[in-house]
TrEMBL record:
Full protein name: Ferredoxin
PANTHER family referenced in this protein's UniProt entry, alphabetically: FERREDOXIN
InterPro entries from the UniProt entry: Fe-S_cluster_ET
Keyword Iron: yes
Pfam families: Fer4_13
Cofactor(s) for this UniProt protein: [3Fe-4S] cluster
Organism: Lentzea flava
Length: 64
């Protein structure tokens, strides 16, 4: 898995940051930023939840 954010889709809701704060943070413009593109094993569930929890589908797995 390799996480990415589509900056054009990000609605700045911050759901990914709330779900997986070890993987995402808010940028100075409010748009989410991936902190760890390749999640460690203990964060995989949070990564998947962040992908599913994004209301505008801006969070995705580059690998699939």
């Amino acid at each position: 898995m390799r996480l990415k954010i589509d900056r054009n889709l990000c609605g700045t809701t911050g759901q990914c940051v709330l779900i997986a704060p070890m993987l995402f943070r808010r940028g100075s413009d409010g748009i989410a930023v991936v902190v760890q593109p390749v999640p460690p094993e203990d964060e995989m569930e949070n990564a998947e939840e962040a992908i599913l929890g994004c209301p505008v589908q801006a969070v995705a797995d580059e690998d699939g």
